[in-house]
Amino acid sequence: MDQFLLTAEAEHVARARPIGEPVFSLKSSRRAVARTAAVALAGVACAAMMTGSAEAIVNGKDSTQRYPSMVSIPVAGADDPTFKGVCGGSLIDSQWVLTAAHCVYPALVTLDGTVRIGSEWKNSGGTVRSAARTVSHPGYKNDEGTSFNRDDVALIRLDRPVAEKPIRIAHKPGRPGTPTRLLGFGTINDAPDRTEWVFPDRLQELDTRRGAGSECAPGWADSTRLCTISKVPKAMACNGDSGGPQLQKDRKGRWELIGVTSGPGAPGMRCGEGPGLYTSAPAYAGWIHKAISR
Q1: How far is residue 173's CA from residue 250's CA, in Å, rounded to a whole number?
Q2: What number of other Cβ atoms are within 10 A of residue 136's Cβ?
Q3: Residue 208 — φ and ψ, nearest 5°?
Q4: Is residue 131 a contact partner of residue 20, using CB atoms and an 8 Å limit?
Q5: Alpha-carbon distance 263 to 261, whole Å?
Q6: Rounded to whole angstroms, how far apart are CA atoms 30 and 157?
Q7: Please, which residues have CB within 8 angstroms of residue 45's CB and are 6 or more apart in sequence?
Q8: Is the Cβ–Cβ distance between 212 and 190 less than 8 Å?
Q9: Cβ-contact 244, 279 below 8 angstroms
Q10: Collapsed DSSP state (helix, strand, coil) of residue 144
Q11: Which DSSP state fits 92?
Q12: What CA–CA distance (Å, rounded) separates 191 from 269?
């Protein structure tokens, strides 16, 4: 299954490149698919752009409410712009979007240059802004299918602030068993052939729960990576959902951000076959605030 495209701190932030610089390059579309297929929810790289209206994520459903902080990030294969895809993201500040590092990884994808904020539709509504720059976590490592992505978190700075309300990063994720919700515009099926992927126009949601570490592959879930289990059979985030949010409710019933879609929870798993792995947003809150302040 494709990695869910959802894969020195100060020096890295200082060296973050403006979006316009030609930093993206894929050695081959086939190799890109092979990489993403094992590393995470990558629908981002080399996904043929199709539309559909069925349930999605995989076996999710149409969004039931507005999510002002939801962000869709158009991307293309780095070596072939005709292959189009999408990543997700979360507005965490009026001018900053949190996403997965593999969604801005030069060897996999090229950003379209714009993002859409606060819409339940992939290609209309909300607010569109240009991406001014990206900042990936300096520890990010893409293991090309041999394991999970490490430090799979990145930021996109918008050219101008937006009016949509940012989502608050939770102080900490709930305990295993805590109800959560996933959002995304990723494919509604997990066919091994990317030409068969179907991307919905409408934002999809899926109710899940925090899993125990033992419910993902040994060693994959820890203090920085959350194991996630679907409450619906054969359902999970998939190609194109990478970088999107995992939400939980606070004591007042408001959504807060706990996870960033990163990949499958075990090697070789198809989207609907097993758990998902999410980068813990609370675990990286310190790095996020420092990067934004710089």
Answers
A1: 10
A2: 23
A3: -135, -175
A4: no
A5: 6
A6: 31
A7: 2, 5, 26, 32, 33, 35, 36, 75, 77, 78, 83, 85, 108, 109
A8: no
A9: no
A10: coil
A11: E
A12: 12
Report how far apart, in Å, the C-alpha atoms of 141 and of each of 33, 39, 138, 263 are: 17, 10, 9, 13
Gap between the Cα atoms of 145 and 166, Å rounded? 33
User: Given its phi and psi angles, is residue 63 left (phi above 0), alpha (psi -120 to 50 degrees) or beta?
Assistant: beta
Residue type at 16 in one-letter notation: A
Phi, psi of 186, rounded to the nearest 5 degrees: -75, 175
> For residue 36, which amino acid is it?
T
Which amino acid, one-letter code, is at 230?
A: S
Label residue 260 left, alpha or beta by phi (over 0 means left) and psi (-120 to 50 means alpha): beta
Question: Strand, coil or helix: what is 211?
Answer: coil
Task: Tell me the pTM.
Answer: 0.81
Write out the chain's pLDDT in tens, 294 residues: 345 553 333 333 333 433 333 222 222 333 333 333 333 344 333 332 322 333 347 778 889 999 999 999 999 877 767 778 899 999 999 999 999 999 998 877 888 899 999 999 999 999 999 999 999 999 998 765 557 889 999 999 999 999 999 999 999 999 999 999 999 998 887 777 777 787 888 999 999 999 999 999 999 999 999 999 999 889 999 989 999 999 999 999 999 999 999 999 999 888 888 899 999 999 999 999 999 998
Tokens representing 193? 């052939």
Domains and CATH numbers, the chain: 9-293 (2.40.10.10)
N- to C-terminal Cα separation, the chain:
37
